[in-house]
Amino acid sequence: MNSIQLRAEEIGFAYNHKPILDDVNLELRPGEIVGLVGPNGAGKSTLINLLSRVLTPQRGRIWFDGHTLDQLSAEQVAQHIAVVPQVFQIPNGFTAFEIVMMGRTPHLGWLKSESARDLEIVRAAMESTSTWHLANRLVNHLSGGERQRVIFARALAQEPQVLLLDEPTAHLDVAHQIEVMEMARRLKNEHALAILGVFHDLNLAAQYCDRIVLLKEGRVFAAGTPSQVITAEILRAVYGVDLLVLPHPRNQRPMAFIGSAM
Ligand code: ADP
Ligand code: MG
After folding, report:
1. What is the tens place of the pLDDT at every residue in 152-172?
2. Which ligand 1 atom is the nearest neighbour of the CA of 43?
3. CA 226, CA 122: separation in Å to the nearest integer?
4. Residues with beta carbon < 5 A to ion ligand 2?
5. Which of 205, 212, 210, 199 shows the shortest CA–CA distance to 256?
């Protein structure tokens, strides 16, 4: 088993004394995709923000490579951990290329000048997200799916060891959902990235994730393989609905069906 890359240990967090996360433990290893699922408001985005040092936990610690995140500067964190946020405010007037080049910022020297190597990394990130042909287009003029892939490319240009994805497939059609998930799988296999992704589509998560962590009201309600977590009993307890869970005919992974009695 690979060593742990990122570890959240007994995390507690509150916004203005309103408790949001309580005693959350989570480990991410190189070469795995972990799905973070749970109802709206369960605390998934808050956890992503804590793991990327945008927020600081009030209780517990987050470890990266032998250091706690608060021992590292924002720039050091950004050299290792990249985020594709749920909402990304793109500043006006930038081309796709310029946005992706911003991913290199934490790696540039104090002169902040871009080298041929930075250009090469940006190009590779854009090619692997099928956005290189959009390089000179203004990002504000791109479609939602194209923009999402540009933000993904920007995260890849950071050359991270850990990739945190907050609903990367929201607003994407099924073809682009698969494209994003295949890309994530390729990155974990070829670059041994540790990937944590928030997904609303349980079936998509079950197909692509090695493990799933299910949050309910700020606590880990279940964690394990997709088959251990995606069960009718657990989904009823967390979402309050009855779903039919069957193994996928091709790979036996769990599939949850909405099965209204007709
Ligand atoms: P999820 O991503 O699982 O939908 P969030 O982490 O976004 O959940 O939110 C968890 C809870 O924290 C929600 O009740 C939300 O209203 C609250 N919350 C999120 N961001 C803030 C904030 N900046 N200030 C106060 N409360 C917040
Ligand atoms: Mg969220």
Report:
1. 999 999 999 999 999 988 878
2. 6
3. 34
4. 44-45
5. 205
